[in-house]
Amino acid sequence: MLVDQREQRSPVKAVSFATSDDSVPAFATGYPYMSKITNISGEVTVMTTKSCRLYYALMPKNATAPTAADFKSGSLSGNLGSGSWNMVKNVTDTFLVNRQGTLKELTDYDLFLWLTDADGAKSSAVKRVSFKTLDGTPPTFVSGPTVTSIKDTSVGLTAVVDEAATIFWVAVKQGDEYPKPMNGQTTKPTLSSPEAKLQVSSGINGLKSGKVSATANKEALISITGLTSESAYDVYYVAQDKAGNYSDPVGKLTIHTLDINPPAITQEFTRTNDAAGTSPLADTNIRLVFSENVQDSGTNHQLLALYQKSRDTSTTQAERDAATEVLTGLLRDDIQLWSADVAPAERVKERTATSGSGADWTIDYRFVEITSEDGKTVVTFKSGQALKLKSGAKYYFKIQNIADTSTAKNIIKPNPLTLPTFTTVFAQIQFSSTDVSATVDGAHVDFDMSFRALPLSTGNAGDGVYWDLLFRMNIPAKFDLYEKVNTIASDGSVVEGAWKKHANSAEINSTDGTMYGASYTRYFRDGNTSSSTNAELLRDMTAVRYYGIRFTSIKNVDVRETWSGKVEMQVQAVAGSDKSALHNLAVGGMQDEDLTQALKDGLVKVGSPSDYTMKHIFSDTMIPEFVTGYPKIDALDVSGSIGVQLTRTTGKIFYVIAPVSTITTTLSEELGGSKSLTSANWDQLPKSTTIDTNLLVFSSVPTSGNIMTPPYNDTSIIKGSVSYFGSNVNIPLRGLSPETKYVAYFVLQGSASTIYSAKPYLFGFETSETSRPIIELTISNPNVSIKTDTTSDVSYLLAVNGSEPGNLSRPMADYVPLDKKEKFNTDYAGKGTGTGKVYTVLDAMSNSFFKDGNLAGSVFDEYASQTSKDDFAEFIRSQTTTSGDVTMSGEATGIRNKTVNCSAGMVGTTWYTFLTVGKSTAGSGDAFRAIRPVFNTDATPPMVTACLSDIQLNQAGTAYKGTLTLVFNEDLYWVVKDTGTSNQTVTPLEATVSSSSSGFYSAGLAFQRSSAFSLVAGTPGQKISSVTFNFTNAQHGAYIHAAVELGDKGGNVHSVPLTVSLDTSGAAPRFVVAGDWDMTT
Question: Which of 155, 189, 626, 982 is the most exposed place for a label (fewest CB within 10 A)?
Answer without folding.
Answer: 982
